[in-house]
């Protein structure tokens, strides 16, 4: 078996677009990454982290720099403070030197000396420079006396309970009131002072008290201060040993110093945001500050625990020790945290903001890049999927297409075909592939078409005759489509549709359109065609043509009594017999129902047609056996001739039809030729039909109304609508003239519809204008009544005009009901359900008036005018009207007499208690305008209500 050729549909699709995806390694890497959304977030987090680190780092650097600067300033300040203390010690020493040089120095000289020092300006914090003389208890009196003698009469030593060794304040400069108060104070009486004095005495060096409150401040409150003592000796300014110093000890220079002023001047040199604390203790013992600058350091008030410096909670502190008069002070310099970063404090913030901004920007850029990348990947994926889908769809289309598709290569060999093509060809697909399809076509036209397609010409072919495609014969529709690329034929696509079924259906439809389904004979359409054809032939040959209209006698009885299928079988048997007795050139067809037609060609004289008719009679004469029953069917035949009676198919058929009726009238089972009179009548009828069609179309019909009146009161109890034709040439034409033609042609249905809708519209108008409350009757023909749509049409007309039903009365004739009483009863019941009134017209003229009446929902009986006419002829035959009135009364029906022309007739009707009448006596049928005048004149209260 040949290898299936490569599928050109698959091989030849447009080359897939280049794979837009990145190379595999990168792809794997990208796939291993978290979702594209995560990468920018991670970048952002990293960026924020780095920014925060940068912030911290820059902050730290700035702080370090600030600390360093602060430390330098502190060193500078501390050395100034130490210098100042040293200077103060030197002042004390200088004063001590003075006292030792001039042991008999008087207080005035002391004062002068101190004033010369300009203490307040040059030595802030020093309250005074005083001198206290050391005396024993025994020498105290002398001291007091000498002091008094020196101009201080109030001088006394205090407190008086002092010990044996006293150091008494004798000079205090400047000489102000406060210093004066301190004179005479025995320094040894107070422990802190005594201790410092003893250190000063024994060491010969300046000695400071611990922080104390000066006597001069005791009254005003604590102001931290200390007193710096410098001992004086007799003889040697500094005896060599403590014992020698004690022995030579003469007193002390005392310099009380307030710590605040001492330090304030210096701290002002610090930045105002810095603080200073001074503790009167070494670093390890510093507890309660002796001094705190105006802007003390924030945070705890405690010591730094021996630290040389540090930073806590953003606060920088530097601690130094300061020797003061033999004591060790601790000085803590502090800077406020919020003031550390000053000139460059925006830098960390800027670093953070910049870092964050960069991180966000980086994240956004990454996000965009990744989104673009992932969208590109997505698009590439979508494109690939779409191409695959297209490919799959194309393949599916090819394999599942109900249309046969074959691909024929330039060599004429089948490259591929789908299952439908294989099925159409009646061969397996594998058997077809590789074969030369031209050898398989059983039709030369198909071969030519394919060869033309192989030359690049597309073509279509629908075989009229069954065509052999492969191994199977049917009707095919073939379409050859060459497919080229770069001007070169790649293959020819052959589309093959098996249209055999369609052809058969078309043929069947064609058959049904021209042949009678029941008998297989030509139907009305084909008969017309055959007559037209025969007429052309007859005109050409100058021959005659006969049309025989055959109607089966009493076939209705057979059909109704034995059933329709039985009737159908009879019709088929009749058709066979009619065919059997005819020449080949003649045509027999069925018009419908029990009507057949024979078209006899090449008739030279009427006798030829008569013989055909006789043959028909003869052939049908022998009994038929259907369903085991024997019976005889006889025909009535009307014959028309061309050119004698008519020269077109319609005319010939119509004339033959009329002649057939005459044949029936003359006793059936025979035939009649068209007579001159019949022909004339037929032509007139045809003219009339044409005019009537136009009348309906052009709106030439109109209604007149005849009042119906109460026999006793004379009140109008109803109106009957009667149709008229306003003929353009003949004026008003009465229905008696055109109704029969309308009924024959079926035009009566369209006409009846118009009457129904026009009457309802008129009722609506009158109800609106005149408050009309009596019913309006319309006449309904037998055809209308039987066509099955009357109740629906009536309902539509009522609905369209907003009428409930009893405003309309429908007059049906007895003859309309009599054919099928059951169907009639159903139609009437449907009408009654919609509420209309029913009147039985021409009552009394029918077949079995009394037998069916009780089964029909009727409201009114109309006594035919022939009976009323009889009343006036003096025949005084009142029996029928009397019976009808009595019948009506017993059935509960109202009775109306029509055709009342005289008072006499009216009187008789009154005598018979007939309720109402209509006739020329009261009014002829009158046009709308006259009705309206009449309604306008009438008192509405006289009108009898509907129902
Ligand atoms: N299917 C429809 N049939 C209709 C319609 N309109 C009328 N007809 C029927 O046509 C027949 C003739 O009708 P018309 O010529 O209108 O005659 C009617 C009256 O004019 C006539 N009549 C009334 N009073 C008198 C009278 O005193 N004397 C006298 N000689 N004739 C009179 O009677 C006809 C009404 O008859 P009827 O309908 O039976 O009440 C006739 O059969 C109409 O029914 C239509 O729209 N559709």
TrEMBL record:
Q: GGDEF domain spans which residues?
A: 543-676
Identify a single GO molecular function assigned to this protein. Answer: cyclic-guanylate-specific phosphodiesterase activity
Q: What InterPro entries does the annotation carry?
A: Biofilm_reg_signaling, CHASE_dom, CHASE_sf, EAL_dom, EAL_sf, GGDEF_dom, Nucleotide_cyclase, PAS
Protein localization = Membrane
Q: Where are the transmembrane segments?
A: 37-56, 346-366
Keyword terms of this UniProt record: Membrane, Transmembrane, Transmembrane helix
Where composition is biased (Gly residues), the residues are 304-313
One CC-aspect GO term: membrane
Q: Pfam families per the record?
A: CHASE, EAL, GGDEF, PAS_4
Span list, region Disordered: 1-23, 295-317
Q: Which residues form the EAL domain?
A: 685-939
Signal peptide stretch: none
Q: Which domain of life is it from?
A: Bacteria
Entry keyword Membrane:
yes
One GO term of the biological process aspect: cellular response to nitric oxide
Q: What's its catalytic activity?
A: 3',3'-c-di-GMP + H2O = 5'-phosphoguanylyl(3'->5')guanosine + H(+)
Protein name, UniProt field: Diguanylate cyclase
Q: Which organism is it from?
A: Azospirillum thiophilum
């Amino acid at each position: 078996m040949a290898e299936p050729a490569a599928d050109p549909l698959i091989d030849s699709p447009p080359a897939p677009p280049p794979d837009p995806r990145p190379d595999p390694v990168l792809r794997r890497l990208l796939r291993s990454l978290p979702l594209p959304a995560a990468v920018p977030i991670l970048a952002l987090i990293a960026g924020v982290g780095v920014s925060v680190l940068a912030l911290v780092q820059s902050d730290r650097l700035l702080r370090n720099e600030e600390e360093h600067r602060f430390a330098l300033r502190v060193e500078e300040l501390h050395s100034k403070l130490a210098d100042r203390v040293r200077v103060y010690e030197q002042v004390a020493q200088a004063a001590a030197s003075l006292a030792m040089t001039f042991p008999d120095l008087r207080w005035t000289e002391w004062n002068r000396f101190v004033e010369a020092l300009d203490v307040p300006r040059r030595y802030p914090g020093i309250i005074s420079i005083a001198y206290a003389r050391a005396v024993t208890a025994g020498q105290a009196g002398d001291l007091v006396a000498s002091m008094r003698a020196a101009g201080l009469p109030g001088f006394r030593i205090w407190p008086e309970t002092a010990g044996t060794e006293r150091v008494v304040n004798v000079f205090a400069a400047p000489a102000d009131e406060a210093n004066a108060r301190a004179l005479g104070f025995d320094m040894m009486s107070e422990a802190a002072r005594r201790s410092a004095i003893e250190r000063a005495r024994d060491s010969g060096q300046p000695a400071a008290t611990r922080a104390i409150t000066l006597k001069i401040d005791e009254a005003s409150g604590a102001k931290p201060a200390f007193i710096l003592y410098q001992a004086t000796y007799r003889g040697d300014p500094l005896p060599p040993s403590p014992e020698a110093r004690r022995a030579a000890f003469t007193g002390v220079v005392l310099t009380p110093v307030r710590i605040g002023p001492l330090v304030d001047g210096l701290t002002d040199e610090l930045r105002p945001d810095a603080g200073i604390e001074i503790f009167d203790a070494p670093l390890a013992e510093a507890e309660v500050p002796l001094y705190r600058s105006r802007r003390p350091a924030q945070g705890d008030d405690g010591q730094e625990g021996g630290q040389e410096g540090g930073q806590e909670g953003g606060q920088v502190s530097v601690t130094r020790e300061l020797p003061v008069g033999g004591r060790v002070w601790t000085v803590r310099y502090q800077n406020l945290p919020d003031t550390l970063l000053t000139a460059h404090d925006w830098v960390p913030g800027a670093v953070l903001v910049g870092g964050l901004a960069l991180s966000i920007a980086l994240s956004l850029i990454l996000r965009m890049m990744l989104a673009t990348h992932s969208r590109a990947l997505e698009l590439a994926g979508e494109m690939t999927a779409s191409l695959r889908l297209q490919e799959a769809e194309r393949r599916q289309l090819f394999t599942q297409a109900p249309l046969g598709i074959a691909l024929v290569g330039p060599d004429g060999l089948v490259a591929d075909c789908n299952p439908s093509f294989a099925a159409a060809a009646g061969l397996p697909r594998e058997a077809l592939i590789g074969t030369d399809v031209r050898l398989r076509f059983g039709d030369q036209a198909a071969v030519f078409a394919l060869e033309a397609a192989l030359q690049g010409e597309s073509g279509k072919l629908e075989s009229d005759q069954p065509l052999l495609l492969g191994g199977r014969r049917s009707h095919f529709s073939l379409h050859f489509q060459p497919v080229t690329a770069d001007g070169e034929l790649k293959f020819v696509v052959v589309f093959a549709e098996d249209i055999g079924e369609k052809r058969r259906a078309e043929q069947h439809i064609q058959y049904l359109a021209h042949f009678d389904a029941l008998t297989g004979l030509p139907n009305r359409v084909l008969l017309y065609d055959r007559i037209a054809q025969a007429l052309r032939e007859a005109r050409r040959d100058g021959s005659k043509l006969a049309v025989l209209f055959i109607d089966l006698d009493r076939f209705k009885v057979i059909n109704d009594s034995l059933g329709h299928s039985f009737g159908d079988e009879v019709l088929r048997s009749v058709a066979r017999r009619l065919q059997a007795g005819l020449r080949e050139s003649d045509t027999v067809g069925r018009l419908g129902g029990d009507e057949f037609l024979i078209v006899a060609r090449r008739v030279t004289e009427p006798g030829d047609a008569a013989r055909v008719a006789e043959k028909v009679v003869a052939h049908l004469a022998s009994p038929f056996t259907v369903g085991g029953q024997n019976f005889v069917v006889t025909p009535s035949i009307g014959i028309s001739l061309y050119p004698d009676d008519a020269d077109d198919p319609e005319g010939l058929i119509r004339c033959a039809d009329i002649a057939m009726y005459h044949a029936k009238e003359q006793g059936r089972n025979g035939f009649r030729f068209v007579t001159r009179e019949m022909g004339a009548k037929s032509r007139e009828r045809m003219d009339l039909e044409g005019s009537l069609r136009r009348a309906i179309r052009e709106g030439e019909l109109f209604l007149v109304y005849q009042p119906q009146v109460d026999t006793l009161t004379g009140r109008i109890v109803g109106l009957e609508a009667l149709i008229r034709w306003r003929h353009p040439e003949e004026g008003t034409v009465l229905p008696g003239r055109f109704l029969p033609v309308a009924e024959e042609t079926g035009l009566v249905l369209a006409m009846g519809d118009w009457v129904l809708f026009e009457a309802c519209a008129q009722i609506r108008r009158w109800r609106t204008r005149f408050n009309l409350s009596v019913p309006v009757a319309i006449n309904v023909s037998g055809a209308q009544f039987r066509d099955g749509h009357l109740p629906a049409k009536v309902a539509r007309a009522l609905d369209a005009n907003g009428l409930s039903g009893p405003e309309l009365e429908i007059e049906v004739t007895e003859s309309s009901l009599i054919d099928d009483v059951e169907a009639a009863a159903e139609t009437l019941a449907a009408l009654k359900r919609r509420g209309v009134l029913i009147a039985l017209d021409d009552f009394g003229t029918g077949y079995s008036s009394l037998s069916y009446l009780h089964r029909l929902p009727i409201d009114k009986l109309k006594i035919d005018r022939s009976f009323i006419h009889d009343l006036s002829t003096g025949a005084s035959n009142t029996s029928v009207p009397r019976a009808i009135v009595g019948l009506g009364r017993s059935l509960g029906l109202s009775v109306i007499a029509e055709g009342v022309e005289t008072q006499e007739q009216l009187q008789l009707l009154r005598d018979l208690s007939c309720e109402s009448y209509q006739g020329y006596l009261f009014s002829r049928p009158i046009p709308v305008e006259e009705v309206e005048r009449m309604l306008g004149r009438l008192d509405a209260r006289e009108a009898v209500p509907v129902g």
